[in-house]
Amino acid sequence: MGNILVSAHNSPHFFQVIKYWGKRDTGLILPTNDSLSVTLSQDILHSKTTISAAKEYTGDRLWLNGKEEDITKNKRMHNCFRETRALRKQLEEEAAQRNETLEPLSTYHVHVCSENNFPTAAGLASSASGLAALVFTLAKLFDLPNNMSELSRIARQGSGSACRSLFGGFVAWEMGSNADGSDSLAVQVAPETHWPELEALICVVSDAKKGTSSTEGMQHTVNTSPLLQHRIKEVVPARMAEMTKAIQNKDFQSFADLTMKDSNQFHAVCLDTTPPIFYLNDVSRAIIRIVTEYNNSSPDGKLKAAYTFDAGPNAVIYAPKENMREIIQLIAHYFPGSSDTYFVDHYKLFESTSDVRSN
Ligand code: ADP
Ligand code: DP6
Ligand code: CO
To answer: Where would a tag sit more exposed on the chain, N or C end, judged by fewer CB atoms within 10 A?
Structure first.
């Protein structure tokens, strides 16, 4: 029996508008609060993952961006292998009861080959698209039912942010309350096509690997930040409801206001961590000033753009399509020459659907 190969693309979330930062259970990856992100069109930034399974393989292996990584201690990838194999095993058993034979893929090792077409571990959510692509591709390989909620529970155990990246459009991760994590999963708030006038400008300020990984950083925050307790109890629940409403009503004023406030509070809880975590740099702060000035110059007092930063210095600026040209000119004016230290481009959201090939 030859190898069985499947490959798939997956987008990162671009970007969280209500931030995930903190776990109440680090093993199952259960968060301290709900969060919400926008998934970018897959043609632009993606992880492309190909997986093969074969009887002859002697271990599970990963090649990431062309280089083999040692995954023997990578508990999160093994969570994804274990959970998808368990579902495959059920299918194999059900088939046996019908006197049919399914290739016993649940017992084979896999070789995973994945490439991100954007910087890895730089705060551009590579773990979200990478682990979502892993689970999605395993599900194709194992011929699992196309149940995205179930898959999102599995992707969550690979990287929290990955549970949202299985869906397009505007996606919430509901923290859930069950101790076993059965209700901690992603749901789509609105599809890709919902708000075509909304665009995102991604400013890659640095592609260097960040000093503090998201996983490590957020647990320091949980253990030391008093501000995080206020955030998760008093701020996020109301903000999630308001953000959901703003998205449903395509209300850019509320969307922009909440997005910037949540980014600011996320970076404030990082600063409130002992020792403090700094993800923003001077260029990030200059972008915040430029967007603030731009909004202050609005003749009718309305917000024209919103910035947000995840766990890294790279910015995403959301704005209605009609303002994008002006914003790009403004960024180009303040950062002439660009490209060695930063790169600015204009990406349109919500363009494509999934591209899954299997052979
Ligand atoms: P980011 O801000 O890029 O999400 P994280 O610190 O959260 O940074 O996660 C980075 C880690 O995610 C990488 O070191 C790697 O272990 C994992 N990862 C990233 N991309 C992939 C991928 N395509 N396939 C498998 N694992 C990946
Ligand atoms: C600011 O999903 O990368 O929300 O669940 O430990 O894998 P783990 O963390 P991760 O955290 C996301 C942090 C963030 C977005 C980001 O920078 O990826
Ligand atoms: Co991440």
So the answer is: C
Cβ(260)–Cβ(306) below 8 Å: yes
Tell which phi-psi region holds residue 65, choosing left (phi > 0), alpha (psi between -120 and 50) or beta.
Answer: left
The environment of the single-atom ion ligand 3, i.e. residues with CB closer than 5 A, is 127, 214
Q: Measuring CA to CA, how many Å separate 258 from each of 12, 321, 350? A: 21, 19, 21
CB atoms inside a 10 Å sphere around CB 188 = 18
Q: What are residue 18's DSSP bridge partners?
A: 36
Read off the DSSP letter of residue 162. G
Ligand 3 centroid–CA 302 distance in Å is 33
Other C-beta atoms lying within 10 Å of the C-beta of residue 281 = 13
- pTM of the predicted structure, to 2 decimals: 0.91
**Model confidence over 80-117: pLDDT tens digits?**
999 999 999 999 999 999 999 999 999 999 999 999 98
Q: Which residues pair with 187 in a beta bridge?
A: 172
Cα separation values, 322 from 22, 240, 287, Å: 36, 27, 19
Q: Distances from the Cα of 317 to the Cαs of 39, 150, 305, 344, in angstroms?
A: 14, 32, 7, 11
Residue whose CA is closest, atom 6 of ligand 2? Answer: 215
Distance of alpha carbon 15 from its chain centroid, rounded?
A: 7
Interface predicted TM-score of the whole assembly (ipTM), two decimals: 0.97
Question: If residue 219 lies in a helix (H) or strand (E), which one and from where to where?
Answer: helix 214-224
